[in-house]
């Protein structure tokens, strides 16, 4: 499967974009009401938890932190939550968010790679990342999100 790579230029400083990506307030607004929970220590776990199939505490995505440098990079393994697929533990990819200052803007790059053959989440991921990252850009620049009908 092909790697998913997205680049956005955002008219906001890196710390604003970073907070949108990792703070509970930011992630609830950009990740379908889910909160990112983690110690952010390398080799520790992280989870996106929010309303879903298992109620208010549904684990939508989880993984292990591979790299974490505030305002620069967050990388981890990624699995769909247990309520999505019975073989969720086998369905591992990697996500890497990288921030870079470009003039008065922040370049946000997301790479979602290491897809195993026939991963059932690939079609949704390839379309949902565009919406999520558009919301990151809009929230960081304006303080509000897009109305995507969620």
Automatic annotation (TrEMBL):
It holds the Pfam family AHSA1. Belongs to the AHA1 family. Gene3D superfamilies: 3.30.530.20. The lineage of its organism: Bacteria, Bacillati, Bacillota, Bacilli, Bacillales. This is Activator of Hsp90 ATPase 1 family protein. It comes from Paenibacillus dendritiformis C454. Transmembrane segments: none annotated. It comes from the Bacteria. Residues 12-136 form the Activator of Hsp90 ATPase homologue 1/2-like C-terminal domain.
């Amino acid at each position: 499967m092909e790697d998913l790579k997205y680049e956005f230029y955002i008219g906001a400083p890196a710390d604003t974009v970073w907070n949108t990506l990792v703070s509970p307030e930011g992630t609830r607004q950009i990740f379908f009401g889910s909160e990112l929970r983690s110690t952010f220590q390398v080799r520790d776990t992280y989870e996106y938890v929010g309303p879903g199939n298992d109620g208010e505490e549904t684990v939508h995505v989880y993984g292990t932190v591979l790299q974490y440098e505030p305002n620069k990079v967050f990388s981890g393994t990624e699995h769909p939550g247990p309520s999505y697929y019975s073989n969720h533990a086998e369905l591992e990819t990697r996500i890497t968010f990288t921030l870079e200052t470009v003039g008065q803007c922040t370049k946000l790059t997301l790479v979602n790679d290491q897809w195993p053959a026939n991963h059932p989440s690939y079609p949704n991921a390839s379309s949902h990342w565009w919406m999520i990252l558009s919301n990151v850009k809009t929230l960081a620049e304006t303080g509000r999100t897009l109305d995507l009908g969620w």
